């Protein structure tokens, strides 16, 4: 099962005026039933890096998405322009959308403002999220959980975050 679509590049007068929009590829294990999850990530990233930018009169950063089934059991990875952004096995499960948007941004254009999805270090000496240990994904960053219907944020410590990741199957 493979799906792909691309849209024509809008309103660039000449190729030198802007960079070429990127290509998003998500490869998933069909036997694991991760097609819907792959579609969701694809949709969210396309909305952020294509549709919303067009609405603001900016060049899109993603012009093509591909979702492809893999024959490798447990496989799930995401690439931008053939550069690996996330691999479920080496990065410790499935990424939080905020984290993956920031990784995609770093590949496409680090100057892009993601608004509320921007990861901001709460600690000036915090390193980027290059460690593969799942418990380290939130280290150095403020962690908030919004409870629907309640307008307060809930602070979670590392153990609570680890428990939440296990409960939601992202480890």
UniProtKB/TrEMBL annotation:
Entry-linked Gene3D superfamilies: Glutaredoxin
SUPFAM superfamilies (alphabetical): Thioredoxin-like (SSF52833)
Annotated stretches, region: Disordered: 1-21
KW Repeat (keyword) present: no
A matching Pfam family: Rdx
Alphabetic keyword roster: Redox-active center
Keyword presence, Nucleotidyltransferase: no
UniProt xrefs under PANTHER family: SELENOPROTEIN DOMAIN PROTEIN (AFU_ORTHOLOGUE AFUA_1G05220)
Entry protein name: SelT-like protein
Species: Triparma verrucosa
């Amino acid at each position: 099962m493979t799906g792909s679509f691309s849209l024509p590049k809008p309103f660039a007068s000449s190729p030198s005026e802007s960079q070429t929009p990127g290509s998003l590829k998500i490869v998933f294990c069909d036997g694991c039933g991760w097609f819907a999850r792959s579609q969701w990530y694809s949709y969210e990233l396309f909305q952020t890096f294509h549709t919303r930018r067009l609405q603001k009169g900016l060049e899109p950063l993603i012009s093509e998405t591909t979702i492809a089934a893999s024959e490798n059991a447990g496989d799930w990875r995401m690439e931008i322009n053939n550069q690996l952004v996330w691999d479920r096995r080496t990065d410790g499960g499935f990424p939080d959308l905020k984290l993956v948007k920031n990784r995609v941004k770093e590949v496409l254009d680090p100057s892009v403002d993601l608004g509320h999805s921007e990861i901001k270090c709460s600690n000036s000496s915090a390193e980027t999220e290059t460690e593969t240990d799942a418990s380290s994904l939130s280290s150095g960053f403020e962690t908030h959980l919004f409870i629907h219907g309640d307008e307060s944020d809930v602070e979670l410590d590392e153990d609570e975050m680890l428990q939440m990741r296990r409960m939601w199957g992202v480890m």
